[in-house]
Amino acid sequence: MFDDLDASLVALLADGAAPQEVRTADVSFTAPDKDFTPGQPTLDLFLHEVQENRGLRDVAPILQPVPAGGWESERPPLRVDCTYLVTAWSPKTGALRAAEEHRLLGRALLWFGRFPVIPVQFARGTLKTPPQPYPLATSVAQTREGQSMGEFWTALGIAPRPAFSLTVTIALQPYPETETFADVTAIQLRAGLLDEPELYGRVLDSQLAGIPGATVTLVEASRTVTADALGEFRFAGVPFGSYTLAVTSAGHPDTSRHVEYEKTAQAHDVILTGP
Fold first, then answer.
1. Taking burial as the number of CB atoms within 10 A of a residue's CB, which of 5, 6, 135, 234 is the most buried?
2. What is the CATH code of the structural domain delimited by 187-271?
């Protein structure tokens, strides 16, 4: 995916509306160390840091409609900041080299600064297909607090030179698994009274339809009731606490469910599997 981001940035720099110096310069992604000596005007974009953007972390699932009906749910992707060090290089010498490098670097800074997000037409590879779920946000010439560029240049083994940072935030999906849910066809409201609590619920089949006539036993209280036409059951006058609901119904395996019955947790459904 990082190579696709590189290709997207190359496409952005080569756009016909970009300054001439920018679109005609060579583009490199090589580490700008002491062995880097390009033979033509070059913009070097060195990807030196990849970090999750925790400020953009999301825990809510992403829901997409399914053409045949229903919904598909997937976990949200990681949001990752990819930070490049942008430098300009000239094959000239002395003052002419400095002038050309400064001019090229300045034009590149102005061009990147025009794009708070990378337009979709410049996206390449996996950043294009499938399309990114979020815009490819950018930030230009930002340095994190406490970051020392002197140490950076020392590690590269060369004297410090003019440069600016370019950070692009991309989405990465490490969770290919999805879940599918049926459309909601009906909503049923059930209410309980805080002053007159009851342990209640419904006996449901695997399609969440009520099962009438099911036998429900509150094991610890030695009480048994029969579910009504909607599969609903109720136990009144039961102290709050931990209980076991044991359910039997023709055509379904016997099922038990442990529940915590509280004033604010009175409803407890039981879902039965098929025969």
1. 5
2. 2.60.40.1120
Characterize the bridge pairing of strands 62-65 and 164-172: unpaired
Residue 267 exposed, middle or buried by CB count within 10 Å (0-12, 13-18, 19+) = middle
Segment (H or E) for 95: helix 94-112
Q: Which of 65, 62, 56, 91 has the alpha carbon at shortest distance from 75?
A: 62
Q: What is the C-alpha radius of gyration for the chain, rounded to an integer number of angstroms? A: 31
Over its length of 275 residues, how does the chain's per-residue pLDDT go in tens digits?
899 999 999 999 999 999 999 999 999 999 998 888 999 999 999 999 999 998 888 877 878 788 888 888 888 889 999 999 999 999 999 999 999 999 999 999 999 999 999 999 999 999 999 889 899 999 999 876 666 676 777 777 888 889 999 999 999 988 777 778 777 676 666 666 677 899 999 999 888 889 999 999 999 999 999 999 999 999 999 999 999 999 999 889 999 999 999 988 899 999 997 66
Helix (H, G, I), strand (E, B) or coil at 213: coil
Q: Which residues contact 22 (CB under 8 A, 6 or more apart)?
A: 13, 43, 104, 107, 108, 111
